[in-house]
Amino acid sequence: MTIPVPEAGLVIRYSYLWHSEHIEGREEGQKDRPCALVAAIRTSEAGETRVLVLPITHSPPVASSDAVEIPPLIKERLGLDAGRSWIVVSESNDFVWPGPDLRPVPGADPASVAYGFLPPRFFGAVRERFLEQTQKGRARAVQRTE
């Protein structure tokens, strides 16, 4: 599998564990999905990097502040389907890169786990919304283990 360098704005395929699933005691996500990498932080001199990813879903958010809709043109450039999708900014997964939960992108090179990058301006808006939710104490994080 080809593992890219983790960079903010990269959209990857990942077995995302929703906070509600974590509360139920699950350790694995039920569905592989695209996720936007919002931060990558080197945490050790040995080169370990922790990343924070936000899930992408077709389910409209209950509150508009909980997600950012992805414009159709961006979805098309990433190779995502044509249905409406949102990047959820009210929860995240945190894990050591690359981790065991990366998955190949369907319909692409079987060795690739990345769809591509969000455009910088759009990614900036997503990041700002995530930081707002975090500062207000409304963003839940699930720390994943190996």
Question: How would you describe this protein?
Answer:
- The model has no long low-confidence stretch (mean pLDDT 95).
- The protein is α+β, with helices and mostly antiparallel strands.
- A hairpin with a 6-residue loop joins strand 2 and strand 3 (49-57).
- It has helices at 19-23, 72-78, 120-135, and strands at residues 10-16, 31-42, 49-57, 67-69, 86-88, 91-97, 114-117, 140-143.
- It is 19% helix and 34% strand.
Quick rundown:
The chain has 146 residues and is α+β, with helices and mostly antiparallel strands. The protein has helices at 19-23, 72-78, 120-135, and strands at residues 10-16, 31-42, 49-57, 67-69, 86-88, 91-97, 114-117, 140-143.
List keywords for this structure.
single chain, 146 residues, alpha+beta, 8-stranded mixed sheet, 19% helix, globular
- Sheet with the most strands? 8 strands, mixed
Distance between the termini: 18 Å
Unreliable spans: none
Radius of gyration: 14 Å
Strand content: 25-35%
Order of helices and strands: EHEEEHEEEHE
> Share of helix among residues?
10-25%
Mean pLDDT: 95
Number of E-state strands: 8
Instruction: State the shape.
Output: globular
Task: Assign the structural class, choosing from mainly alpha, mainly beta, alpha/beta, alpha+beta, or little secondary structure.
Answer: alpha+beta
Note the total helix count: 3
Helices, strands, pairings?
Blueprint: E1 10-16, H1 19-23, E2 31-42, E3 49-57, E4 67-69, H2 72-78, E5 86-88, E6 91-97, E7 114-117, H3 120-135, E8 140-143
Parallel strand pairs: 6-8
Antiparallel strand pairs: 1-2, 1-7, 2-3, 3-5, 3-6, 4-5
